[in-house]
User: Fold these one by one.
Assistant:
Number 1:
Amino acid sequence: MSLPEVAVYTRPGCHLCEVLLESLVPLVRGRARLELRDVDTEPRWRDEFGSRVPVVAVDGLVVCEHVLDEAALERSLAPRPE
């Protein structure tokens, strides 16, 4: 069973991003692969998420924006029956 991927769309200097990551990292440690994506490095990310950062997606599905929704994150990381 592979770990889910948690992608955080962010940008340098984003205070909301820093606050979200401070809470998110301990919640996903050992439970998911965490990838930080700077929206300003990829035009399609900037177009989709540029004004919405931070955005958290689990396996490609957006879970929350601007602030961490711990309940939604927990649901998205819950084991799924095979």
Number 2:
Amino acid sequence: MKRHIIYGHFGPKDVISIPKTRFETQINIDLLNRKGKLNYGVQKIINDLIKIGLTPSETAIDLIILAIHIQAADTRISRTEDSQDTWTREIRLIAPISNLKKWNSVSPILKKTLDFLTGDLWTIQFRPRPKNTFSIIKKSGKNSPRKKIESISLLSGGLDSLIGAINLLETNHIPLFVSHADEGIIKKTQKIIIEQLKKQYPQIDFSHLGAWIQFPKSLTGDSEPEKTTRGRSFLFFSLGILAGSGLKDKFTLLVPENGFISLNVPLDQLRLGSLSTHTTHPFYIARWNQILKVLQIPAKIINPYWNKTKGEIILECSNRSFLQKIMSSSLSCSSPTKGRWKGRIIPHCGYCAPCLIRRSAFKKGFNGKSDNTQYAIELSKRKLNTLRAEGKQVRSFQLAARNLKLNPNFINILINNSGPLFDISSIDRKILGKMYKRGIKEVESLLKNVGAEPLSK
């Protein structure tokens, strides 16, 4: 087991002595490339924003620098090799920022946010940027005339963010869509969706910021890269805030995600803690809004579908015929690249929790019409093996539906199993409970005639 220090520095001259114990391993993050520009695609992101007339604030640049540290730690420190329980890692970050007093005041909230998001034990520390980097934005070039932007919305390539985009464009709203990818298949999906949206809504001159941030596999030496990526939404949210900070006014960052998967109640005892993701959980979004307030960034993060199931947001989509035509281009699978190692070219496995929720949502949202999405497995052709990945989530959903019928009053306890809900009112907690019941029923309807049991072969 190793404890890691993630230390970011601005070039070879930016060197300080970092006291560390004999149990800690230091990982250096080169924030500048050989040309002296911000590394890992950050300079391109800033330049792309400037091209549409948005100059990010230095505090927002600090935020993206911190997010780079977090993303590097999350994707390059192995849970299997570098933790005592094959999950919980101990990570200390030392990020160079422009305002030490401001960032030190937000450090306790950041720790609470990251501990919840990834299930690791984080220590967040800061140091001043070198003097020659206090004003990074001055080195980024002259702004172009600012395009009209009325809102900012994340566009992941998933079905929910696609529906969010359609709903915005149907009102003739002019958004800036912000995307992030570190896998080719995700980048391709986002590009296809943007092209289709432009073709459908040629009269709306919306903008798109597509970020590509990835780290070399050699960053942590011989350790295998981590594949769980529980911390990915911190970087994604940071990109949205970076873009919005260029508006110079108060803004809302829209994070479209159905409430059922945002709540992500563990279906059984095998999916407790960080085995269930928290990327858009109400507690996590509330901590983010707390961070923004302390940092004096005039923004608020909102999930417009916090109280809707996936099937319900399909039903309420403002252009259902267009959605049905293009939804097969969206990507919902939890691990779309895993099929590549099995010689499979279809990105949707069809049996992970997000795939099952997607399939059930289509059934509800389009009244049983044919789902054009290609899945690697059909659900009803044979019994699925619960000893293998193909049947585990199917059985978990079936058990969750059965237990909810047997103990319907347990709903108020269940919805708190994935994280605290003290930030929202008792009325909203009741709304979440009812939404969770509806979400379970959607998936139960899909799996009504699907057999899943432990099979020896």
